[in-house]
């Protein structure tokens, strides 16, 4: 009967240690997030010299690359 109580005592001590460790870990994460706060960056504006609609060219290049890869793989 004493072994059961010793086992329960050991279980409570172990669970308490884990709980305290998790609380300390949570507190350290919260503190570090406040210390190293990430500033929100403003969105980057697209300049007038850049092209916005080059998706058709990109699709053509990707399609030809896939076709060349498949043709090379079948040989």
Helix fraction bin: over 70%
Number of strands: 0
Mean pLDDT: 86
Largest sheet: none
Order of H and E elements: HH
Instruction: Report the structural category.
Output: mainly alpha
Number of helices: 2
Span of the ends, CA to CA: 76 Å
Which runs of at least 5 residues are low in confidence (pLDDT < 50)? Answer: none
Beta-strand residue fraction: under 5%
Radius of gyration: 30 Å
Task: Give the CA-based shape.
Answer: elongated
How would you characterize this protein structure?
By secondary structure, this protein is mainly α. It has a domain at 1-36. Helices cover 72% and strands 0% of the residues. The relative contact order is 0.05. The model has no long low-confidence stretch (mean pLDDT 86).
Topology:
Blueprint: H1 2-35, H2 55-74
A few lines on this structure:
With 75 residues, this protein is an all-alpha fold.
Describe this protein with a few key phrases.
75 residues, 72% helix, elongated, mainly alpha, 2 helices
